[in-house]
């Protein structure tokens, strides 16, 4: 994975000092909260219901054991002994004191981490495929492209006060594990005439007006990559709406302008920008890519497995994925224990995952947008011992992509924007469907909960989505069916009137019963819904 | 009203800036003011006779002027480029990178804080409209 050189270290160290100075000026009353807000936001510090929340960047979701141990250390020293892995592949702490924040950033900098641009109206942490470098189906490792963009976007002088936040995702496989087309810019690395380049999708997003990003350019060669993105952002910075924060995302600009007109504007801007010489040379790409070279696999690693322990076999089938290297596998550690808080991990669990990565996964971990942790390169021969250790720590829930593998935003328990609680509902649903046999019978079923229309819990992209709203002072939950954040991307449709907390759990059960009764061979819940349409589900839920 | 901060060696331009419409309608103006929603590119045919472009920042959150500055500099504009309005001390280093070389902030700026923040970053990752050498160029010559 990427290692800082002197320049990266210098920039992050300067940022720590800058933020320390900004906090000191705030604490001394030299700047107002209104003026401080965009400064702290650009460093991932939010004021929430009860305390400050600090969001730490995990660029493209990749980190090593040393960094993971630091996250555990900070959870113990400055927070309440746990952290929350987010849908942006980051980690956030919920109980931070403002005056501690500069020291936390200084500690993070010692392990090449930071909180730069994890919030604010700027280019956010770049997200990517959590199986990058390991996936059997990838064209190339997307992370060198993502790291190139991390550097380009860090403290970008022109794009630090955009109309609204800006999220970029880079993938390089046909299977989309990162919800690429639901980003402001989604990039798929593709090959054309033997050369790698980028297919650029612009204007996707969730929030109150969900949109799937249209293709703006089918191939941008490496030599034009940064220039082209600079042009995409400049058009947005100049013409994106600033009169209404709910209409300020680039998806609204694309929607109002039309994808063709936007693409034409970008081409015109690109012609001007390309002449500036702002594209890094191929040598820089090669320097970065060398950090992502495959680890030293054991070519003789046995490719067979002993499946005689039935509990282990269930976990293998559910949470272990194919690796490109024979004898190795990709392990997803579920942070969704039945009845737990989706994405939360204790400091002890974080330390254990770090130790396991060091021992069994070439010192590498990944955070997924579904709020789980991946050990990307595990010898098949090590899987049983690994599983036993995970089981003993409460980390062996075999529910990857099943109904209890729920994405949930922090909701009204933490968030100042939320209308309804998400976490207790996730706990109730998982408890209702806790039987693993029943979950496996239901198969792949992505359930996502947001506690308000900002859609941090990705409810539009859930096979089953839930949106919490406030209905005359009472929490109410709307049900959506048919969304997907994968390569078969689609937006869910609301079934009808909303439900109480208990009512929505019953409604979900009724919807799954329709699926079980009417599915055809090999169909997932989503496939059956797409074939049958809403009517039979609606009848079962409201009839 | 804060003091005018200048990072140029020449004398400050005395002529008041006229609106973009007025500038386009009169041939002899040498100073022009651009509102944040206006297109700087209409000035490109006239750059060699302009001595001052004042770019309005009505709210510190409105970042359109950063693009305006770069577009003018990238087109070869050499005159004074002034950021006027809700310009905060923490934004001035970014504006300098976008080519601004004078500042007329509405509220006074603490010069010690500003000097420290202008000196803080030794390196920058990306190329912009200032002389800073991007990190990738330092790495590869």
Short description:
The complex is a heterodimer of chains A (543) and B (141). Chain A has 543 residues and is an alpha+beta fold.
Write a structural description:
Chain B: Pfam families: DUF934 (PF06073). Chain B: InterPro entries: UCP030820. Chain A: This is Sulfite reductase (NADPH) hemoprotein beta-component. Chain A: Keywords: 4Fe-4S, Heme, Iron, Iron-sulfur, Metal-binding, Oxidoreductase. The complex is a heterodimer of chains A (about 550) and B (about 140). By secondary structure, chain A is an alpha+beta fold. Helices cover about 35% and strands about 20% of the residues of chain A. In chain A, the strands form four sheets. A five-stranded antiparallel beta sheet of chain A has the order 1-2-5-4-13. Chain A has a five-stranded antiparallel beta sheet with strand order 3-14-15-12-11. In chain A, β6, α5 and β7 form a beta-alpha-beta unit. Chain B has about 140 residues and is an alpha/beta fold. Chain B has one domain: Rossmann fold. In chain B, α3 links the parallel β5 and β6 (about 100-105). Chain B is globular and about 50 Å long. The interface between A and B is large, with 43 and 38 residues.
> How many beta-strand segments of chain B?
6
Major protein interface: A-B, 43 and 38 residues
Q: In terms of per-residue confidence, which ranges of chain B show pLDDT below 50 for 5 or more consecutive residues? A: none
Which architecture of the largest domain in chain A would the CATH scheme give at its second level? 2-Layer Sandwich
CA-based shape of chain B: globular
* Shape, per Cα inertia axes of chain A: globular
Largest sheet of chain A: 5 strands, antiparallel
- Count the helices of chain B. How many? 5
Task: Please report the distance between the alpha carbons of the first and last residues of chain A.
Answer: 54 Å
Name of the CATH superfamily of the largest domain in chain A? Sulfite Reductase Hemoprotein, domain 1
Tell me the Rg of chain A in angstroms. 23 Å
GO molecular function, one term (chain A): sulfite reductase (NADPH) activity
Domain Nitrite/sulphite reductase 4Fe-4S (chain A): 119-271, 404-541
Domain Nitrite/Sulfite reductase ferredoxin-like (chain A): 52-109, 339-392
Keywords (chain A): 4Fe-4S, Heme, Iron, Iron-sulfur, Metal-binding, Oxidoreductase
